[in-house]
């Protein structure tokens, strides 16, 4: 895998160290997460973040274990790091870091205090909400090590304050149980019990959100490190509190062994491929130990069907997880209603609110059968997939229906944003894209052809599907090309001066990346034209992927920054989306254009933000600083998929 190693000039510089984040998932939807320098910059950071019934319903438990070393001289040196609402950063343990490594996906810190060197490793027990933190004396000594446990128990999207109830901490033999929800275990537990007031999260401040909280100092663990090789370890776990997990060192070794196996099973072609394979593993989870699902992004997203299906090929078919993929596709098929796939979003409710999620599902099933030869699954799901087509032809929710005049798919209803460009500001869609969006119709045509192939594999008549495919393809080729030299983004859209349903319609020719699907999908409606792709690339492409809108557009927003309204307003108005690099590369390859240089920037990005992973978004203007979730499923999946296709 890519060598993730940072020395004192990164670790000791707060801006550099705090802007690089690591993630260790538990396989259930929970995680441990923080920064290279040890400073918590988000409300979501913690050593034990516990999953709930849905992937997004997480609780923050153990926040930090702050090390303090008492040297033979009697001097006490604190190695933790906190930022306070006053603006002060204290302690500043990152200044003593001589190295940070990410080894087999697991973080390792190495502090030097003169001749004394102490190392920390962290891992989660695969398949259980349990973290192990191991401290090892590497050189020098003897020293005493204290580990101060800062705790809370709250929703991951919020904060807890001292003016509320005091956390209940019950002493047990080797530590404590906090709020009856999770247990801490380690040597020499000494209860304390006081509030740490005004802990500040700089990234939440940057996002315009409440940035301060209070933490409960529950107590400290104390151990002696007499000689090099001695360890002091702490474990924290939720769920079955009486069922003690394995020793901490065994948890670290088990996690490392498992991560190596995950990578080896995928047979990576190079170090980048191996790194992306392990990154992909973080998103495949079993909430509550039940059916497999996909976390759209860490640390704040849960499961979204559109993200899951766009990510499907990269996460499952490129990583030797076809059996789990089969299980996932069957489970999602069971949610179909009126021809639409459920979008079981972060609300925890089953919602049907996308026009493209179902079409991406058709694509995922088709690719699964094509890649694996699993015709049994195709036969099993065929009736449900045929029902999807019938429902779209007849018309379903939100005005989603096939226009009989041209065979293209239209969509839109007041107040809705049904495509992947679904941002809202104060409940009002920023880009409703009512009418016939280009990528929706590319997916529709792709879905018709893919389903026709599955139908023929099952020995059934596919003539009607091929007829619809032919009509829609002919209409697409006739109507979507624009005089601008690229494709219209939406056909038959309400004119700006008219409300939805008004008399005037127009064809929107804004330069957006959605048209890439018209050339990139397996059954794409158009053959790519090099001149057109160069126009699209010249207007949209950045080192981290295509922008969502060209910079010369009046609506272009170059910085994805500010409070929620500002960020949502610019979400799809110029912000870069790395996942779109997949369709761009596919289209270029079909046009016989070289893409050897396209991956340079995004591969370098693997060490810049979410370590070993790919961000959700980035600024549309240079230097294209990453924004959004540091670890995003479809960004990783699409990069992994198109790199593999080119090998």
Automatic annotation (TrEMBL):
<dbReference type="GO" id="GO:0005980">
    <property type="term" value="P:glycogen catabolic process"/>
</dbReference>
<feature type="domain" description="Glycogen debranching enzyme C-terminal">
    <location>
        <begin position="279"/>
        <end position="641"/>
    </location>
</feature>
<dbReference type="InterPro" id="IPR012341">
    <property type="entry name" value="6hp_glycosidase-like_sf"/>
</dbReference>
<dbReference type="InterPro" id="IPR008928">
    <property type="entry name" value="6-hairpin_glycosidase_sf"/>
</dbReference>
<dbReference type="InterPro" id="IPR010401">
    <property type="entry name" value="AGL/Gdb1"/>
</dbReference>
<dbReference type="Pfam" id="PF06202">
    <property type="entry name" value="GDE_C"/>
</dbReference>
<dbReference type="GO" id="GO:0004134">
    <property type="term" value="F:4-alpha-glucanotransferase activity"/>
</dbReference>
<feature type="domain" description="Glycogen debranching enzyme bacterial and archaeal type N-terminal">
    <location>
        <begin position="20"/>
        <end position="227"/>
    </location>
</feature>
<dbReference type="GO" id="GO:0004135">
    <property type="term" value="F:amylo-alpha-1,6-glucosidase activity"/>
</dbReference>
<dbReference type="InterPro" id="IPR032790">
    <property type="entry name" value="GDE_C"/>
</dbReference>
<dbReference type="Pfam" id="PF12439">
    <property type="entry name" value="GDE_N"/>
</dbReference>
<protein>
    <submittedName>
        <fullName>Putative glycogen debranching enzyme</fullName>
    </submittedName>
</protein>
<dbReference type="InterPro" id="IPR024742">
    <property type="entry name" value="Glycogen_debranch_N"/>
</dbReference>
């Amino acid at each position: 895998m890519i060598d993730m190693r940072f020395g004192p000039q990164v670790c000791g510089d707060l801006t550099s160290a705090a802007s690089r984040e690591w993630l260790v998932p538990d396989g259930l939807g929970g995680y441990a997460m923080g920064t290279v320098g040890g400073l918590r910059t988000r409300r979501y950071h913690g050593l034990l973040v516990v999953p709930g019934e849905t992937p997004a319903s997480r609780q923050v438990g153990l926040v930090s274990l702050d090390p303090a070393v008492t040297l033979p001289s009697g001097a006490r040196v604190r190695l933790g790091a906190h930022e306070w609402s006053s603006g002060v950063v204290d302690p500043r343990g990152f200044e003593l870091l001589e190295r940070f490594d990410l080894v087999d996906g697991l973080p390792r810190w190495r502090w030097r205090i003169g001749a004394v060197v102490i190392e920390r490793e962290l891992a989660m027990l695969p398949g259980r909400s349990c973290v192990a933190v191991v401290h090892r004396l590497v050189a020098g000594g003897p020293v005493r090590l204290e580990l101060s446990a800062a705790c809370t128990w709250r929703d991951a999207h919020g904060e807890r304050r001292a003016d509320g109830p005091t956390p209940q901490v019950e002493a047990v033999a080797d530590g404590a149980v906090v709020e009856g929800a999770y247990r801490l275990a380690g040597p020499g537990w000494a209860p304390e019990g006081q509030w740490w007031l005004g802990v500040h999260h700089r990234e939440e401040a940057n996002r315009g959100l409440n940035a301060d909280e209070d933490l409960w100092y529950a107590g400290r663990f104390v151990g002696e490190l007499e000689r090099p090789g001695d360890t002091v370890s702490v474990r924290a776990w939720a769920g079955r509190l009486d069922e003690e997990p394995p020793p901490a060192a065994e948890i670290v070794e088990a996690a490392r062994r498992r991560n190596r196996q995950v990578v080896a099973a995928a047979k990576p072609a190079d170090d980048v491929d191996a790194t992306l394979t392990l990154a992909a593993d973080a998103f495949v989870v079993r909430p509550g130990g039940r059916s497999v699902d996909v976390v759209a992004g860490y640390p704040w997203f849960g499961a979204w069907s559109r993200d899951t299906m766009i990510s499907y090929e990269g996460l499952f078919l490129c990583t030797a997880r076809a059996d789990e993929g089969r299980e996932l596709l069957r489970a999602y098929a069971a949610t179909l209603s009126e021809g639409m796939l459920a979008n079981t979003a972060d609300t925890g409710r089953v919602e049907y609110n996308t026009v493209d999620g179902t079409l991406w599902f058709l694509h995922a099933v088709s690719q699964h059968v094509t890649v694996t030869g699993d015709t049994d699954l195709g036969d099993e799901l065929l009736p449900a997939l045929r029902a999807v087509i019938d429902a779209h032809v007849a018309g379903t929710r939100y005005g989603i229906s096939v226009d009989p005049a041209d065979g293209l798919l239209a969509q839109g209803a007041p107040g809705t944003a049904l495509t992947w460009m679904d941002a809202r500001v104060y409940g009002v869609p920023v880009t409703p894209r009512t009418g016939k969006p280009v990528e929706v119709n590319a997916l529709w045509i792709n879905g018709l052809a893919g389903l026709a192939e599955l139908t023929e594999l099952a020995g059934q008549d596919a003539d009607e599907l091929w007829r619809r495919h032919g009509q829609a393809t002919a209409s697409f080729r006739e109507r979507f090309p624009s005089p601008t030299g690229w494709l219209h983004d939406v056909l038959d859209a309400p004119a700006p001066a008219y409300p939805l349903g008004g008399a005037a319609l127009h064809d929107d020719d804004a330069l957006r990346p959605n048209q890439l699907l018209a050339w990139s999908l397996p059954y794409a409606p158009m053959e790519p034209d090099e001149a057109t792709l160069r126009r699209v690339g010249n207007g949209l492409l950045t080192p981290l992927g295509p922008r969502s809108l060209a910079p010369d557009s009046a609506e272009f927003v170059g910085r994805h920054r500010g409070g929620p309204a500002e960020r949502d307003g610019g979400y799809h108005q110029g912000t870069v989306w790395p996942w779109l690099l997949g369709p761009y590369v596919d289209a270029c390859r079909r046009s016989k254009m070289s893409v050897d240089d396209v991956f340079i920037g995004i591969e370098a990005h693997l060490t810049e933000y979410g370590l070993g992973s790919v961000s959700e978004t980035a600024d549309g203007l240079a230097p294209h600083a990453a924004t959004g979730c540091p670890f995003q499923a479809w960004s990783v999946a699409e990069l992994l998929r198109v790199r593999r296709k080119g090998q």
